[in-house]
Amino acid sequence: MQIGMLKLAGLKNENCAGVLAQALKAVNGVSNASVSFGDSKATVTYDEEIVSTQRLQVAVQDAGYSIAKPVHGEDSACCGGCGG
């Protein structure tokens, strides 16, 4: 099992977080999903042999929300936009 985190955009309230969590849990291969409205993040436990992070991103988009663009230095990773 893999635990992944998705930075989200478009959440307007706690109800949105609940709807999105249910949409992620409905994806085959996902064993658990929680969405924090305050942090705009989803934490998803999934079987990486069954579902990919790209599929999780599609589930977010299908539910009417989007993935936030990475910011340089966020989570100690480069956003890829600066070449560094």
UniProtKB/TrEMBL annotation:
It comes from the Bacteria. It holds the Pfam family HMA. This is ATPase. PROSITE patterns: HMA_2. GO terms for molecular function: metal ion binding. Residues 2-68 form the HMA domain. The lineage of its organism: Bacteria, Pseudomonadati, Pseudomonadota, Betaproteobacteria, Burkholderiales.
